[in-house]
Structure prediction request, 137 residues.
Amino acid sequence: MRTLHVGLRVADPDRAVAFYTAVGYHVVGRVPDTPFGQLTMLTLPDDDGVSVELVFDPTEAGRPRGTGLSHLVIQVESMDATVTDLRAKGIDVAEPESPDGSADFLTSWLTDPDGNRIELVQWRTGHADGLTAADWS
Prediction:
């Protein structure tokens, strides 16, 4: 099994797409009318498939979009280059920190226009893509 994508409820699909494309996602496709609302499928250049689905339900306008979502995690090759690029695009990104105090394992946080938290992760050289059991041994 593997995670396919994360569905995020958004208040304004155009604003959300503008934000996520600035982060580096590309629109794969759209489904204009479903029982859940309008769907926009996104992927990052190195993803094998859709990793984020933006969900906009016009009938929920003005109502809370609460979810169980804690955060979305995006792996980056270079934290410095990514943070510099995002800030140049006007996106507020927290100063990177290292969870283990090393110089090559870094995390940073940003928040999308709908309040969804996103964690950026730069793994140390040689680390597997994503978390594995080795991270807890």
Observations:
- The beta strands are 6-9, 26-34, 37-43, 52-56, 72-75, 106-111, 117-122.
